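Recap quiz, item 2
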Amino acid sequence: MQGTREKTGMVQTENSRLVLEDGSVFEGRSFGFPQSVSGEVVFNTGMVGYPETLTDPSYKGQILVTTYPLIGNYGVSGDDPVDEVGGPFESNRLQVSALVVSEVSVHHDHWNASKSLSQWLLEQRIPALWGIDTRSLTKRLREKGSMLGKILIDEKDVELYDPNNDNVIALVGVTSPVVYAGGKTRIVVIDGGCKNSIIRSLLARGATVIRVPWDYDFLDEEFDGVLISNGPGDPKACEKTIAQVRRAMEREFPIFGVCLGHQILALAAGGNTYKLKYGHRSQNQPCKEIGTNRCYITSQNHGYAVDPQTLPAGWEPWFTNANDGTNEGLRHRSRPFMSVQFHPEAAPGPVDTNFLFDEFLRML
Amino acid sequence: MTGSQPKKVLVLGSGALKIGEAGEFDYSGSQAIKALKEEGITTILVNPNVATIQTSDYLADEVYFLPVNAYFVEKVIEKERPDGIMLGFGGQTALNCGLELDQKGVLTRYGVNVLGTSIQAIRETEDRDLFIKKLTEIGVKAPRSSAVTSVSMAVRVAEEIGYPVMLRVAYALGGLGSGSCWNAEEVRERATHAFAHSPQVLIEEFLKGWKEIEYEVVRDRFDNCVTVCNMENFDPMGIHTGESIVVAPSQTLTNSEYHMLREVAIRVVRHLGIVGECNIQFALDRHSEGYRVIEVNARLSRSSALASKATGYPLALIAAKLGLGLSLVDLKNPINNLTTACFEPSLDYVVIKIPRWDLRKFRMVSQRIGSGMKSVGEVMAIGRKFEEALQKGLRMLEIGVCGLVGNDNFRVSDLERELCEPTPDRVFAIPEAIKRGLSIDRIHDLSHIDKWFLYKIRHIVEIEERLRQRASQGCSRELLTEAKQAGFADRQIAGMVGLTEPQIRGQRKHWNIVPRVKQIDTLAAEYPAQTNYLYLTYNGQDDDIARESTNSVIVLGSGAYRIGSSVEFDWCCVNTVQTLRRLGYRTVMINYNPETVSTDYNECDKLYFDEVSLETVLDIYEMEQPLGVIISMGGQIPNNLALKIHEAGLTVLGTSPLSIDAAEDRHKFSQLLDRLAVEQPEWKELVTGEEAKAFANRVGYPVLVRPSYVLSGAAMGVASTDSELLRFLDRASEVSQRYPIMISKFVENAKELEIDAVACAGEVVVWAISEHVENAGVHSGDATLVLPPQRTYLETMRRTRKVTGKIAKALNIHGPFNIQFIAKDNDVKVIECNLRASRSFPFVSKILKLNFVDLATKVIMGHPVPKIHGSVFDVEYVGVKAPQFSFTRLDGADPTLGVEMASTGEVACLGDDFEEAFLKAVLSVGYHLPVRSMLLSTGPVEAKAAFLESARILQGLGITLYATKGTSEFLRANDIETTLLHWPLEQETPNILEYLTQRKFDLVVNIPKNYQEEELTNDYMIRRHAVNFGIPLITNIQFAQRFVEALSRKGLDDLEIKSWREYNPQHRLSSIGGALTAGS
């Protein structure tokens, strides 16, 4: 047994625990890189797709708790590039600060797997804990709101770290423009931590994608539309991006915002954003399309939301969360600006709303 | 759907429980009726299944206990004139009935709208050719296949596709008659059988070993579409999903696989235009993302009931509302009344369903499981580890195992064969194979079971090894914790470390290793839940609910449905809980059967979806600190716990567990009867075979052999000779080592009666006597019951009541009970006494409109009940309860009646006289009218003589009579002409087999010559062929006589279409306790 564990990357350590800023302690065991770390503790209720989730740049600076208790069942497929965009998942590295689960599979099985989750975490030096009552932990986060916390391994203490005080998007996107050649339509993607699936969704529809850094002045490039990507942290920290978007709006370029991009678009339009108590991180968020009978199941990962009351004239809410009534999308009545809080590119999660990419391309 | 809601809706039930169509349809039908009532719509229900909740008087406005077929449903439509009909809540029976009604133009003629999924869409899911065509239109892959209508075509298509192929039967329940074929000969054999039941057979690509994945999909008329649950079969393709261990959610699928299949599911459902709920099954390649859509069930199904319980999302309720044209977005998630119903539940636990088989109850049945369904029930276990849920689930089966490992009584002779050609024991063969050194790869190659599941099983084996190694030093805290987290029971651990169950319990409590209570909330804790849908786990650090003790009562449920314990006990439990609630108690239900209404979280204040075992009941009792536990409503499983929980210091409400023991223990009970001067058949406790032989020879054969603690005749047998006797002794001793074996004189040619009653402090307050149509010797669960009795002497009835009174007093019975009697010439002997609610409680309660469970619950809780006046029993109609058999599904099983129960369900119908009620009842369980031709083979000479008068009647009715040699000669000697047919083994023409194959008889009467034949005799072949070719079969002489009499007096037209209320207008008596006023 011990032998197998070593082979699959499980390193046993004593005294591993998660400590929240309210002082609560959850004892667990380490199965990732044995190093203490701090971040914002958030939970995700998705039941599949841990490789996609862990590589989503929007989790930068966060300690991720999975509510589904059995993680790692199908291992991890090789992360070698599968196309020009990169590896099979949402970015080329694990983005979370740490992972907390109830049980990790010591043994996995899948035709496409090349390593265990634990091996992957070790390779990429990401700490992880198992043996934690993640339901109990989630309830605490639900009741008290997202909290800072730290994983302590072998009693090595670290300072509490709040990614929302940092300009984290600067840490996750490209640092210089990258062009993915496609068809005639040229789309600038402002990369605030863009998931690969967004790029792939555009490429699959025959567009050429110009992926630019979050603070890049793209207005001199040749392009037909702008997609503002998802990303981590507080949207208000992205002042440079907001300013860029505002300029693009003035020139009436078609714009599509996704997740953080939705919040940035709202801020650029003059609206306001606020922090949700514990955010939406799941694959089952129902979003109603306003003025229709339709509701879509969406994949989400965000801690901030747009306050639709603060939007200037000309804007209208497009989607609303059917559970808590928060804003899930915006549209401009007369100009080609639209955005959604959820992830139409899915990965992980349901693909119900990927038609929005088609709508965006039709707008160009 | 026009958008305007219907005013009056007809709901079709599924009839008697049978293999492939069981309790899940009571749950879905009840939910549908509740949904309609919430919308203010008048509801009419047709369902002869008297033991269901849906046929309660407080649900549908009118209930018709009539067969669910086009003839009767048309009559009901003609009379009631509903403007809508719901076909999706009564299984395949209701769906097929709806298709036929549509085909006959009945629905159009009477302007009845099909609510929810349209007939067109139903047809496109049921007809394989149309189905594949629809899938192809949207580029969805289905197995390569072709529908054929003849045996020769079947062989030709099979050769084109290439062997092996799968042969599927269209319009079939639970995969009936379907199976894999490896050569032309097998195709020929299977296709011949299949065409007996269905005009169409499908030959398709064989996908054995592919992963089998299901999605439950909900769609409204605005095209909102969600998948509520996905499930993965532990037993991959090749094993029917009803025969598979099923896990929710899927465990081995990546995001890309999960959502690829989900997207296909939604695309298919939209293209078909489903409105409401449906189930879609996929095969998924193990080595790529290749998939095939296997089938779509455009109705609520067994899987949807499971998915409802697994997720907390009430699929049937929502489906019914969507059928009325409501929007999914506008409906609330009932578990929190906060979020929308348009979402997909997120689970933070793992759910495992395990089928429950009862194959050992049948003689000559094949033990192999495959693409046809044979299981009779199922359990669902919830845990936060796979190992935890799996071991819980295996114990819940109540098949004498303490978990996956540690079962000393488990042996497999040929492990490799067991792994690749499974029987119900396969899951136990896996740990055995691991211990014997088979690699995980090898086990996977043989079984195709995903290695992830096998690794989890290996983990259980490793913990067992460590426990056994620690036997001498005692178990460490860490190891005990790990074992409990992996679902080991205290008694399982005790057996491994050489301690007792209480010692392990004491040790773990000392170390504070206790289970935690977690809530099922559909959203993985993202939003708070308002309901108390709970389970226990050792993989948690705190409870989701506060521990409070306020005036609560625990009710123990009945567990898995199996032969002998079925929906009737669920009816009892639900009614108990309802009465308790009305009396102001907080109710706590413990049960684990996903097919039940009692496990609907709305039915009680707290639902623990968990084991009904000593350990779990103690754990929950300690948390809840209730007033006590009611163990007398859930059948034998809770009843068996009575003494144990009493000894553990818990309060058992109702009759004292000591009295229960005195009735269950044959010795004590017999002494009691002697003391009361009540007669019983002569009996003896068995010590050796020689003693048994001596006893049998003294009292004279035949004798009855059985273990003392039994339900439904498990391991019972009637022996007519010394050698038969010894064979039964062997079988019986395997079943139970703890309880001794009993042998008793088997009384022939006697009537059997049973009394269902409630006593208060030893005084009988209410009773009902039912008589059996069949003579004593047929298990009471397989007998046809008549209430009130029609052929019993008043004196016999009087004596029965008197004896009942004496026993109630002597045992100080305080609650429900049932006594079975044999009566011969006014002599009554007691054969069995159960101090709990019995199988016939719903029957007598509904026929008399007097809720025995309600009364019993009041008695148990010490609330006053007046003695019911005898006039209540003078009803001006007759109720007949008839058994439903599922022999068609049990390959090879000998379809005879005996002391072992074989039926899987029951119906009851009402009539102005016996004949009318009897005919309605037998028509509800598969007999047909008119009868134009019959095969007679009336067995022993006494039976031949007894049937003579009946044969004369048949001749007079102009029915064409065929007969076997002896019967034909006997009848000719008595001036009745029959056509002689040769015995199957004679291989001469005209031969009976040939006539059976061509279905030239409308009915077969075959009376067995002795009680339990075990050979491939002529008689067996007649019976088996009759069943295989769907020809009604009678094997009991009294039943045959009554059937012929009824035929001579009534035709189809004479069977009146009257609702329950029309027979007995005392409305809503049972639910509101008004019975008391009416009776006093």
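Chain B touches chain A through 56 residues (CB under 8 Å).
Chain B has 38 helices and 39 strands.
End of item.
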